[in-house]
Description:
The complex is a heterodimer of chains A (846) and B (293). Chain A has 21 helices and 29 strands. With 846 residues, chain A is of the alpha+beta class. Chain A has 3 domains: 48-156 and 219-298, Aldehyde oxidase/xanthine dehydrogenase, a/b hammerhead (Aldehyde Oxidoreductase, domain 3), CATH 3.90.1170.50; 314-488 and 672-835, 2-Layer Sandwich (Aldehyde Oxidoreductase, domain 4); 489-669, Aldehyde oxidase/xanthine dehydrogenase, molybdopterin binding domain (Aldehyde Oxidoreductase, domain 4), CATH 3.30.365.10. In chain A, the strands form 7 sheets. Chain A has a 7-stranded mixed sheet, with helices on both faces. In chain A, a hairpin with a 2-residue loop joins strand 22 and strand 23 (597-600). The longest helix of chain A has 28 residues, at 557-584. Residues 1-20, 645-649 and 834-846 of chain A have low confidence and may be disordered. Chain B is of the alpha+beta class and 293 residues long. Chain B folds into 3 domains: 7-57, Uridine Diphospho-n-acetylenolpyruvylglucosamine Reductase, domain 2, CATH 3.30.43; 61-174, Uridine Diphospho-n-acetylenolpyruvylglucosamine Reductase, domain 3, CATH 3.30.465; 180-292, Enolase-like, domain 1. In chain B, 35% of the residues lie in helices and 26% in strands. Chain B has helices at residues 14-24, 37-42, 58-61, 79-84, 86-91, 93-99, 105-108, 113-119, 125-132, 150-153, 231-234, 244-252, 265-292; strands at residues 7-9, 28-31, 50-53, 64-66, 70-74, 136-141, 144-149, 154-156, 159-160, 167-174, 180-188, 195-205, 211-219, 226-229. In chain B, helix 8 (113-119) packs across helix 9 (125-132) and helix 12 packs across helix 13 (265-292). The longest helix of chain B is centred in the C-terminal third of the chain and has 28 residues, at 265-292. The termini of chain B are far apart. The chains are: A alpha+beta (846), B alpha+beta (293). The complex binds flavin-adenine dinucleotide (FAD). Flavin-adenine dinucleotide binds next to strand 2, helix 8, helix 9 and strand 10 of chain B.
Amino acid sequence: xxxxxxxxxxAPPATPEAPATSGRPGPFGKAIPRREDLxxxxxxGRYLDDxxxxxxAAAFLRSPHAHARIIDIDITDALGVxxxxxxxxxxxxxxxxxxxxxxxxxxxxLHAPRTNYPLANGVVNHVGEAxxxxxxxxxxxxxxxxxxxRVQWEPLPAVVGLPAAFAAEHAVHPDVPxxxxxxxxxxxxxxxxxxxxxxxxxxxxxxxxxxxxxxxEGKGVYARWDADDRSLRMYSSTQTxxxxxxxxxxxxGIPVDRVEVVTPDVGGGFGVxxxxxxxxxxxxxxxxxxLGREVKWVEDRREHFISSAHERAQEHTVRVGFxxxxxxxxxxxxxxxxxxxxxxxxxxVPIISSTQLLGPYKLGSYRVEFHSLYTNTVLVTPYRGAGxxxxxxxxxxxMDAIADHRGLxxxxxxxxxxxQPDEMPYDQGLIFQDGRPxxxxxxxxxxxxxxxxxxxxxxxxxxxxxxARAEGRSVGIGLATYVEGTGVGPYEGAHVRVETSGDVVxxxxxxxxxxxxxxxxxxxxxxxxxxxxxRVTVTTGDTRRFKYGVGTFASRSAVMSGNAVAAxxxxxxxxxxxxxxxxxxxxxxxxxxxxxxxxxxxxxxxxGLPGPRIALATVAVLANPLRYAFDEEAQRAxxxxxxxxxxPAGDGPPVAEGEEPGLEATGWYSPIRSxxxxxxxxxxxxxxxxxxxxxxLRYCVVHDCGTIINPMIVEGQVHGGVAQGxxxxxxxxxxxxxxxxxxxxxFMDFLMPYASEVPRVETDxxxxxxxxxxxxxxxxxxxxIIPGHAVIASAVxxxxxxxxxxMPISPSELWELRRRHAAGExxxxxxxxxxxxxSSLREEPA
Amino acid sequence: xxxxxxxxxxxxxxxxxxxxxxxxxxxxxVLAGGQSLVPVLNMRLAAPAALVDINRLGAExxxxxxTADRVRVGALAxxxxxxxxxxAFAALPLLRQATRHVAHQTIRxxxxxxxxIVHADPAAELPAVLMLCDGTMELASAGxxxxxxxxxxxLGPLESSLSYGELALAATFSLPPPRTGSAWVExxxxxxxxxxxxxxxxxxxxxxxxxxxxxxxxxxxxPTPVLVDLTDAVAGQAHDAADWSAAGAxxxxxxxxxxxxxxTADYRRHLVGVLTSRAGRAASAHAAKAADx
Lengths: 846, 293
Ligand SMILES: Cc1cc2nc3c(=O)[nH]c(=O)nc-3n(C[C@H](O)[C@H](O)[C@H](O)COP(=O)(O)OP(=O)(O)OC[C@H]3O[C@@H](n4cnc5c(N)ncnc54)[C@H](O)[C@@H]3O)c2cc1C
C-alpha cells in the first residue's frame, strides 16, 4: 500500500518574487520526478552493506546491564572459535582512541558533560554500551565469539526515568551526584510577575515520552587501510561524511589528507546519523589499520535500539497567565529533559524545545528553565523535529486549554496571539540553537492559519460532529501551528564544473539520506547554467569530491547547499560568459546562455544564417588548454589546433590574465542566522466509543517553506514527516523497565505506523521567501512531524471531552483515561460540559 | 542477529523427512515458512543443531482438502492458499475470516497454516480456529502417524504436544452444523499485527431462527486460546435480538489476560466483552444468511 496523497499540480508561486533564477525558463520550481528513485526503487542502490564483501566482520559484546562495574572480562572460550581474528577490550585501545569520545557541541549551560569511551572503561551506563569488539571472518562467527566472552559484572543501581533522575537517590556518574548535566534559563520580560498579575492563570503538566529515529538501514562502517599509500578510505552510513573525516583523522592521528570518507546510498537517518563519531566509526578503521585488513560492521536492529540514540522524553510544568480574550500575558515553562547516559551532542534538543516552543506567537513575557538529566539509558541526540515536537506540544496544549477556559474557539485564541505579518522580522528575544538571535524573517501566520481552517473546513465541523453523533460515533478536530528554524549554519559549499562534453558535475559536502538532493541540486545548477537537467549529475557526501561541509540535518540542505550550488553555478556562468565574449568578440552584456549554448542576444537570423554562438562545451574546452590530445574535444584545445580562440592571440597565457583554467568554481553559503518556516496542521480523528481505538480520518497541512525548488519533493517531505508524526502520537515509544532494560527493542513491539495507519495527507501552501538567502528558500525536512503530537492530542481531546496531557496515546491508555474520567478523577473540558443541556459556561477569575 | 551454525537438511519426501527427524531427535527442528522460526534463530533465542526444511514436500503437503464433514489443510499450504481456497471458504468461512487477520500478505505467502498452529502462539488466529472447529492434528513420526485432538494439543505459550521427531502433516477442521454462522473480530495496534484481543465466534440457529448454540475462542488473553461456550447466555434468543452483552460478560469472567506494554489486563478483558458482542451480532447475521440458503 502507498500513502494515498494527492499529487496535485502545484501552481507556481502567484508572485514569483523569489529566485534570482526566475525569469529564465528552466527546471527550478518544477515538480521534476526524483532522478534517484529509479535506481533506489529498482534495487540498484548501493548501501553500506552492499560494499566490502571481502571485508572482515566486526560484532560487539554489549552490556546487558543498565549500570554495572566490569570486574573481569574472560575471552578464553571465545579464542577457540574458528575464524576469529581479534578481540579488543578497552585495555587494547591506544592513543586518542582510548580517550572519551568528543563533546561535539559544548555549551556554557552544559556544566557536567560526559561522553563515553569507544569501549567501556570499567563501567557501563546503559544496556547496549559496547564492551568488547570482535573481528572475525564473517559476522556469524563474530557473533559466535561474542557469545563466548564471559564478563563478571557488579551491578549498580540504575537510574531510569525523569522523576528518578531528578530525585537523584542514585547517580549515573558518581561525580555528578544530582544527575544534572545542564541547567539553563532563558527569559524575555518578567514572566513570573506577568502571570501573577494576569486576570486568569492555569497550570499544566505536559509530558512527551521517549521515542527514536528508526531508519530502515541502521548505521554501518567499512574501512580500508592502504598500507603502501598510508591512507584510509572509510565508508559510513552517516549524515556527515566531512565531519566524520576530521573526527577520525584526529582520533587516529592520521593527516586529514590521508583520510577519505564516502557516504554511499543511505537508507534513512532522521537525525540519529548526524551524531558522530560513533564508537564503531572509530574502532572499525582503528582495527583495519592494526590488522592491515578491511573491516566492516553493519548495525543490526537490536543494536540500533540499544546502542544508537533516542529522543523526545521531556516532562514539562507550565504556568500561564492570560486575559479574558485569551491573550497570553506570561508563560513560564520548566521542564526536565532526559539526555540518557552521555551528552556527546550537547544540549541542542532542549535548547530547541525552549526556543521553538514559542511558535508563531508573541507572548507578553516568557521564561523557560530546563534541567537536562542523566539516566542509565541510551544517549539522546536530535531526531527529526529535534525538540520542536515537544515544544509545539506544550504551546499548542496551552492554546487549547486557554480556549477551553475562556469558552473561545481554539482558532480564535491562536489568531489573537499570533505575530502579524507587518511585525516581521520579529525578534523573540531569545538565543536559538545556532547561537544567533531568534528572529523570524518572514511569514504570514494568520494567513497560514486561515488556509488550514479552510482546508479542513473548521467552521463546518459542528455538522460533521453532529452527524457522527447521530450514528453513535465520536469524532474530534484538532489544530496545531508551528514555526521551524531551518538552515542553521555555519556554512556549506559546493563545486560546479562544466566538462568538455558539456556535462555539468556538481559536488557538495553534505550527504543525502533519501531527500532527493540529486534532483533539487541538479535543478538549481541546470537553472543557473541554462543547461538541460539531464546534463547535470550531483555527488553528495564524498570527501574525495568535496572536502568541507557540515551535514544533512535540521532542515538545512536546501537552504545551505542549495544556495552554495547556486553561488558556484553563478560563478561558472559568469566565467563562461567572459570566455565566450572573448571567443565571439562580443560584449558580455549581449550574451545569453540557454540550452547549453551562448548566443548573441537580439541577433536577427532573418537571412537564415545562424547568429554567432558557442556551445558551453566548447567554452569548457577553451577554459581547459591542453598540450595532449586524446579525443576530439581535447584536440580542439591543443596548442597547434588553431581552433577558434583555443589560445588567445599573441603571447598571453592560454586563458586570460587573472582567470584560472577550467570551467569550474566553488561557491559557499553562510547565513547570518536561521530562516524560519511555518505551518499549520489540522486533523480529524474518530475514537471508538467501546474499544477506544483512534483513527485519523483527515490530516491537513498548510506549510510555508519560502520559495519552492520542487513542489513534489516538498510534498514528499511533508508526507513522510506526517507519517512519523502520526507514529509519534499514536504508536511509537521506547519503553524501559525499572532496571533499565529496553523491553521493546524490536519491530515486533516498537510500533511504527504502516501505510495502513498513515492518513491521506491534504496539503496547501504559502510562499514567503526568505530574505536571508539568494534563493529565498526555507527548510521543509522536519515540517511534517513537528505538530504531530499536538494536533492529534487536540483532536482526541476534542472527541473525548477531557484533557490529553501526555503523548503518545494508545487505545488502552485512552480507555484507562475514560475510566478515570468516569470516576471523576479526570475533569471534563468546560466546552464538553457546556455541550450538556442545562449547563452554562462559567467564568471565574483566578 | 545471525544464527549460530546448524546442519541443514532438505528431504524430498515425507518419509525421508520423518526418518531424518527420527535420527535427529531433540536436535532437529522443522522449517516450514520460517516466518516465526527464522527470527527466533536470528535473535539466538533458540539454537537447534539441525533444521529439516520441508519446503520441497509440496507435492505431498501443499493441499487444502474439503469434504462433507471437514477441511483438511496440509503442512505446506501457505496461509495465502488456505485463505483463497474457495471450497474451504464455502464449507468453513471462518477459516478465511480469521486468516485475513494473520499478518500481511507477504507473510501469508510464506507462513503456513499448520506451522502457525504448531508454533502455538497464544496471540495467533489459527490455533483458536482449530479449537472452535474441534479440530485434530495429524502428527507423523518414525513410529507411525497419530491424531491429537485440539483439546490436547496446546499446552502453553509456544508449547504444543508435538514431540521431538514428529512432523505435523495436516490440521483438520470439522465443519459446523447447518444454519451456523461465524465471525472473526479483533483489535490490533496496527493492521496485521498480532491482536491485543481477538476472537472467533460461531452461532448455530434452530429452525425458528433462534440461537441454539454459541461458542467463541479468544486469543491474546491467556496462555493458549481460550474456548468459551456462550450458549447459556444467548440460547433461545432470536438471532437478531440476542443480548450479546451477557455473553460478553460471561466470557470476560473466563479469561485471565496479562498486562504488557501495549495494553493493560483490564483493557483486554474489556475488549473480550465488547468484541464478543460485535462478533456475536456479526455471526448471528451470518448464520441467518446461511439458514436462508
Ligand atoms: C511480521 C509478522 C507478523 C505476524 N503476524 C501474525 C499474526 O498476526 N497472526 C499469526 O497467527 N501469525 C502471525 N505471524 C506468524 C506467521 O503466521 C507464521 O507464518 C506462523 O506463525 C508460522 O508458520 P511458518 O510456516 O512460518 O512456520 P516456521 O516459522 O517455519 O515454524 C514455526 C515453528 O513451527 C514448527 N513447525 C512448522 N511447521 C511444522 C510442521 N509441519 N511440523 C512440525 N513442526 C513444524 C517449526 O519447527 C517452528 O518451531 C507473523 C509473522 C511475522 C513475521
